[in-house]
Request: fold
Amino acid sequence: MPDYLPHTDEDVAAMLEFLGLATLDELFAAVPAALRLNRELALDTGSPEPDVLARARARANRAAELICFAGAGAYDHEVPPVVRQLASRSEFVTAYTPYQPEVAQGGLQAIFEFQTMVSRLFGLPIANASLYDGASALVEAVNLAVGATGRHRVLVSAGVHPNWRAVLATFAAGTGHQLVEVPLTEGRSDWSTADSEEAGAVVVGYPNYLGCLEDLGAARAAADARGALLAVAADPVAAGILKSPGEWGADVAVGEGQPFGAPLGFGGPYLGLFACSSAHVRRLPGRLVGETVDADGTRAYVTTLRAREQDIRREKATSNVCTNQTLIALTAAVQLGWLGTAGLAEVATRCARGAQHCRAGLLALDGVEPLTGTTPTVREFALGLRVPAAVVQARLAEEGFLAGVALDQLVGEDGDGSVGAEEAPNALLVSVTERRTRTEIDRFVAAFDKALR
Amino acid sequence: MSAAGGRAASAPLVGREAEPTIFELSRPGRRSYQLPTSGFEELGPDELVPPEHQRSEPVALAEVSERDLVGHFTRLSHRQYSVDLGAYPLGSCTMKYNPKVCDAVAALSGLSDVHPAAPAELAQGWLATLTELERALCELAGMAAATLQPAAGAAGELTGLLLMRAYDEARGERRQRVIIPDSAHGTNPASVTLGGYEVTTVQSDERGCVDVGALRQVLDDDVAGMMLTNPNTLGLFEEDIVEIADAVHEVGGLMYYDGANLNAILGVVRPGDMGFDIVHLNLHKTFATPHGGGGPGAGPVAVAGHLADFLPGPRAVRLESAGPDDPPRYGWATPARSIGRVHGWHGNALVLARALAYIEVHGRDGLLRVAERAVLNANWLRRRLAGTLAVPFDRPCMHEVVFSAAPVHKRTGASAHDVAKGLIDEGFHPPTVAFPLIVDDALMVEPTETESYETLVALAEAIERVVARAERHELADAPTTTPVRRVDEARAARMLIPTFDARR
Reply:
């Protein structure tokens, strides 16, 4: 029988005797007899590890073999062996939350470095130790803004990822936030459509989920006119070459940190990035690591401003987050350490270069139109096709490509303020990372042409 | 000391000199990254980004060689305690050994290299994985259906409360209050507030369980439900659970099960059979997915049949096959009255895959043995240490036992906190300190089933030595064997330095 339990029969017997018990079952005497399961669980008996691995291999997915042109917040970036190995060190993998800082300096320092990197990336002085994913970071950003302003109305650009908006709506049922969708025109938020009532937050993507560069100056003005904070959902790779949210005047910036070392992983575990201005540090959600000293005056690290957190403030806490994504944050710190100043800029440039080439190639095909007019894009772009996007996806899968993300999968058949009902079924979002070579892109464009016919 | 029989206690951590930050290791011009050959001529941002959007300077990150990168993070790893190094008896955290086969499953390219928006036809293996895991978790919890989206226990709690709310609204009601015991995890009240409810706290009785009389006094038709951990945070089984559940159901409330302590009862008794309607499961506790120093976890929420229609979507479902001999097909479906998404994609999928592997390798027989040995270990420690520390609720416990260092504190001035620091010098990670809040100087010990008899003996002896040191007033300086000595937490909050750039 496969077993990770070290007890020999003699151990069990001796321990039971010490407790004055005859059987293991007597350990559960406190459980009322009527409640006991009194049957075996309807699960298989335990399998040896090789069998379990074989079963897992049999669940391999065709999508894993395809050359990936899909993005929408989940990207196929290079993760080098050195990052995989360092992030797999079992000291990091099998530790708990650093409640005892003296034996957790390694993880704490790595997160301190991560916070510094996120702060510099987003151009804001405070960054937390991470949240679950980009969507949850956005929920927390809105909660912070509503708490800081006392206003529950929130203007959300339709350019924010549809899944993130859906998560925002789910949790708004509990907090009572009133979400107002601001539609896109040619791929950009049209703030003039929103009424001028006061609001707690204005939320915008940069670039937005269709890949377009929003006018953040206009978003800042829309926030100021309503007494709202500006929350920017930023693509952290594109941020390598774009003006930072902080420089644009954002109060809060959030992002999906998966591109920094996490595999596609069918959507998780990913990494919620969260940064804000100093004014809001006491409303910061999640953990925060700070530098301090030990009893000898040596530099040391510890989770700090703990008084914000759920285990101390309980029902008055700013957030209920405790366990989050520390290992993925540490992985991101390693990945960003590997990339360095030049590497991040080069990855962002490469993505943009490849995307521009791919977009030009696809737009030259018969039956392909831009979905967002002439608005500039960086590393992904939306297209309107002559045939349903799902059909193109299926045909390109036969040619070895994951063609992109069919937008009706994200916004539904009826569309939303970003993609209308008429456009949705034929809309495809295509993304290019630094892993895509010119040859792959050219082959993709040729196969795409065939798939449209 | 000899370590016959597999005693798990760490060697002291390495590194008395402070490790510089990666920013201090940086030298302009060093680099470790390499990108694939692209076939493109080089273009700069000027040709790719409109000027008003361009960053004026690159993001200042560290510039280090690969050798320095490896050295830095390896040295950091040597300053980090972990389960793989030794016992980690943190109460309520279930820090058991994590079988490596589960990591191997998660690392398979066929699973880890799958885009979350890949069409269902191209992701059949993942959909099969998710439906299998959902079935297994429902069987273990005695529930009808589950969502795998919540990324952690607290996310599961909030999901459960929103389910409660949706159920309420579907009945045309708007109840305002949720009851939690005073021994509850801090996430419970925080989640209740975020779910739009008010917290009503009910005290524990002298036996450490919910005071049923006090509970009845706060129950009325304004109560949406009750959140309960069973075994509770004192490690005690709530023996009146049927009476509690009946009382809450009688006023139309729902019973919410906080699965933090499910490890104690696998295959013995199920939350559904106790009368719970909503259950969250911490896969990073019971199902051994590694904690990662504070995540990623996973907090699936399972519900009884009357709540299945409200679950988040989309959910992976098995489709009807065309014929009896056809292979199973899977797709996505969103429940009719779904509360909506609670995760950007499908949850922490690679954590979910690990949990399924853990369940498969253990099976129904292995999971029962897990519960039995977890409870055996905790009770052995309770009995063994009863003369050394106070046991406020001294009767058989489940998977964890709460001691009190209050008598030691009173006698010697050394608090539970000091005892914890002393234990670090003995090579063990300390138990949970100062929780649950209803016990003074609490030391909450959860040895888990994967620690051996020899380890338990070594841990008990270490605690005895630490208490003896307390009697000699020797704990004020502890720990002394660690890379840093006792850390000044108050200073960290007072003079906040949350980034390298904030240093003065």
Remarks:
- Residues 143-359 of chain B form a domain with the Aspartate Aminotransferase; domain 2 fold (CATH 3.40.640.10).
- Chain B has a mean pLDDT of 94.
- Residues 141 and 269 of chain B are 9 Å apart (CA to CA).
